[in-house]
């Protein structure tokens, strides 16, 4: 595991500043999962005084994308990554601190290994679930990542 939460959070400051300034932070990353938090604040709220859906999407995408970046780095190969599709459902007003967790790390690891092995682009659906402090699901995001060897 080469990427750490602090390295990813510094990366967002310089490469994804809207993520950083909206308060999206990686809390943990392992081979199997990644956890990202975001707290509802004035800067990231919607007119209904809850967390804007797009900020939830940034946190959810980062919980999946951090593992994609980690396994690409681990492979040592020039691999491009792109979200081809996404779907989201919202089930409760998001206020307070929301934790997004993705547990599809091994799934993307195998997808990247297959892309390296075959030389062909591959796709992988990854899910991130957002929960409030009571553990109630507020939103669920699904991202279809595409990975492909460059060149």
Question: Any descriptors?
Answer:
Thiol Ester Dehydrase, Chain A; 4 helices; 151 residues; 6-stranded antiparallel sheet
Topology:
Elements (H helix, E strand, L loop, with lengths): L4 H11 L1 H5 L3 E5 L4 E6 L13 H23 L3 E12 L6 E6 L2 H14 L3 E10 L5 E13 L2
Antiparallel strand pairs: 1-2, 2-4, 3-6, 4-5, 5-6
Q: State the helicity in percent bands.
A: 25-40%
Structural class: alpha+beta
State the name of the first-level CATH class: Alpha Beta
Amino- and carboxy-terminal Cα gap: 26 Å
User: How large a portion of the residues is in β-strands, by DSSP E?
Assistant: 25-35%
The description of the largest β-sheet is:
6 strands, antiparallel
Mean pLDDT: 96
Overall strand count: 6
Shape: globular
What's the domain count? 1
CATH H level, superfamily name = Hotdog Thioesterase
Number of helices: 4
The low-pLDDT segments are none
Please give the radius of gyration in angstroms: 15 Å
Strand order of the largest sheet: 1-2-4-5-6-3
């Amino acid at each position: 595991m080469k990427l750490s939460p602090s390295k990813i959070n510094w990366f967002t400051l310089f490469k994804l500043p809207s993520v950083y300034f909206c308060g999206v932070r990686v809390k943990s990353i392992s081979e199997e999962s990644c956890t990202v938090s975001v707290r509802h604040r004035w800067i990231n709220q919607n007119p209904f005084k809850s967390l804007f859906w797009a900020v939830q999407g940034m946190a959810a995408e980062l919980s999946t994308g951090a593992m994609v970046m980690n396994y690409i780095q681990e492979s040592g190969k020039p691999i491009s990554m792109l979200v081809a599709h996404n779907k989201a459902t919202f089930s409760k007003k998001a206020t307070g601190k929301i934790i997004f967790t993705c547990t599809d790390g091994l799934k993307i690891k195998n997808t990247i290994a297959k892309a390296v092995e075959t030389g062909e682009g591959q796709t992988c659906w990854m899910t991130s679930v957002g929960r409030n402090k009571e553990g109630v699901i507020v939103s669920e995001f699904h991202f279809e990542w595409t990975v492909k060897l460059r060149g």
